């Protein structure tokens, strides 16, 4: 048999990915309104329990707005990208980035989400960012909604539970498409859209404690997001004919815990429950297995006339995913548990884990890419992958993050193998190229970046940027188009 080594396509995108609420800061500057992320509290590690989650209650919001709460809200601070974007983009350009994923803070454009007219200062900020990226020949990849539902929509409609939010989202999308039609080609409607079913507040600005039937509410909110995504795709193709809309999934590949057929069946069901989001976005309809799930759980999605036709008529152009780990499925889940990306799993004895307990599975990325490409035959864009780890600054200021290089190398090798398998892969955007506030824990100590930011979990530090060893390594990877992965 002939040995064949796949190569990355010449037009493959290399870069990194961020979210506005984790980097920008300036939460109350230049007319920006509050968003869901602005109410997420930092809980010190010693005070955390297994019950801590990303969900926020109406009472927490009341205490924050009234000043009764003394909690810190690190996503209001970010890493100060709002004031340092030129410096940060110059660092990305030095690494050779050809693409950079950001999100637009919806409440920076429409402070309450439902405003009649957009905030010009917010629009101008992103003009400046896109112009800076263009100066360095970096392609922007822009997420419309990345856990940043304007608080005004939570207050008025309980977030995406309210059907009215569809129209507000489409107006927002139309506004930014029109403004940036000559600057942005690649768009993503909702970051990790499946997270609305795991944390309705995070994914949809929904306060579950205000709902009589929280399960019904989150799936109703999800339906509204599906309709909104399809309508935004329609607008995109009208305003930017060459524009491309992607959906995004937090890819959670499940393996059966044992060869027991019951575990195999459970893994199949868990994988279906992860993939149904892309089924709707790509195939344009709810799969039969999901309709069975709704019946079993007595969920009745309220659909207006035309919803199904809209979803069917305007599918996405490409699929984007985040990938951090694989999971184990068991019909009788007994044994040691480990943490994950907003979820828990039985520990896989064949895998190592990160400092936060996330199981490291590079081969699982190849498995995931093959599974999704076989299912959809659509281009796939990896828009998040990386290692959250503790970094040590040496006395001379250097940061030797060989563990991060090793993690990324192994995942990039498996991407190349997937391309050899026939997967159409658009690019690779490593998560958090400049250290940012963690989505799940609001820590700074959970670092992903090639660039270190001098700021600690309590908000202390100079915010000075410095290069880690992985900075030079990733620069070499990009220069060689993924051929040179050596340290």
From TrEMBL:
InterPro entries reported for this sequence: GH, GH_1_N_CS, Glyco_hydro_1, Glyco_hydro_1_AS
Residues forming the catalytic site: 384 (nucleophile)
UniProt entry tagged with the keyword Hydrolase: yes
Keywords tagged on the record: Glycosidase, Hydrolase
Keyword flag Hydrolase: yes
Lineage, highest ranks first: Bacteria, Bacillati, Bacillota, Bacilli, Bacillales
NCBIfam families: PRK09852.1
Entry's family note: Belongs to the glycosyl hydrolase 1 family.
Transmembrane residue ranges: none
GO MF, one example: hydrolase activity
Superkingdom, natural source: Bacteria
Protein name per UniProt: Glycoside hydrolase family 1 protein
């Amino acid at each position: 048999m002939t040995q064949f080594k796949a190569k990355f396509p010449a037009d493959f995108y290399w870069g990194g990915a961020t979210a506005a609420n984790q980097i920008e800061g300036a939460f109350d500057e230049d007319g920006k309104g509050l968003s869901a992320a602005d109410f997420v509290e930092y809980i010190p590690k010693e005070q955390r329990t297994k019950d801590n989650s990303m969900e926020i209650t109406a009472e927490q919001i009341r205490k924050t707005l009234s000043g009764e709460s003394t909690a810190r809200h690190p996503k209001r601070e970010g890493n100060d990208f709002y004031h340092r974007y030129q410096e940060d983009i110059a660092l990305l350009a030095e690494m050779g980035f050809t693409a950079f994923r950001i999100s637009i803070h919806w409440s920076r454009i429409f402070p309450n989400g439902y405003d009649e007219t957009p905030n010009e200062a917010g629009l101008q900020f992103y003009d400046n960012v896109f112009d800076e990226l263009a100066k360095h020949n970096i392609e922007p990849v822009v997420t419309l909604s990345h856990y940043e539902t304007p608080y005004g929509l939570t207050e008025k409609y309980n977030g995406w539970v309210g059907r009215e939010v569809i129209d507000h989202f489409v107006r927002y999308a139309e506004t930014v498409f029109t403004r940036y039609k000559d600057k942005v080609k690649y768009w993503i409607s909702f970051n990790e859209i499946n997270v609305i079913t795991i944390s309705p507040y995070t994914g949809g600005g929904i306060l579950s404690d205000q709902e009589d039937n929280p399960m019904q509410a989150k799936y109703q909110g999800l339906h509204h997001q599906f309709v909104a995504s399809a309508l935004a795709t329609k607008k995109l193709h009208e305003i930017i004919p060459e524009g491309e809309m992607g959906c995004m999934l937090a890819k959670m590949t499940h393996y059966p815990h044992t060869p027991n057929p019951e575990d195999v069946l459970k893994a199949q069901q868990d994988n279906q429950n992860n993939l149904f989001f892309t089924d709707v976005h790509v195939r344009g309809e709810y799969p039969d297995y999901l309709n069975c799930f709704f019946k079993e759980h007595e969920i009745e999605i309220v659909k207006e006339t035309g919803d199904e036709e809209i979803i069917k008529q305007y599918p996405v152009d490409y699929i984007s995913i985040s990938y951090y780990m694989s999971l184990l499925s068991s019909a009788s889940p007994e044994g040691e548990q480990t943490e994950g990306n907003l979820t828990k799993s039985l520990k896989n004895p064949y895998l190592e884990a990160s400092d936060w307990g996330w199981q490291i599975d590079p081969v699982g990325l190849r498995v995931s890419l093959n599974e999704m490409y076989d299912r959809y035959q659509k281009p796939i864009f990896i828009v998040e992958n990386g290692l959250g780890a503790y970094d040590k600054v040496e006395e001379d200021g250097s940061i030797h993050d060989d563990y991060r290089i090793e993690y990324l190398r192994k995942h990039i090798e498996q991407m190349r193998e997937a391309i050899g398998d026939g997967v159409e892969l658009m690019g690779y955007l490593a998560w958090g190229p400049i250290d940012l506030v963690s989505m799940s824990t609001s820590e700074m100590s959970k670092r992903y970046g090639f660039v270190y930011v001098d700021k600690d979990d309590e908000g202390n530090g100079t915010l000075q940027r410095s290069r880690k060893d992985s900075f030079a390594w990733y620069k070499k990877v990009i220069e060689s188009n993924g051929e040179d992965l050596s340290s």
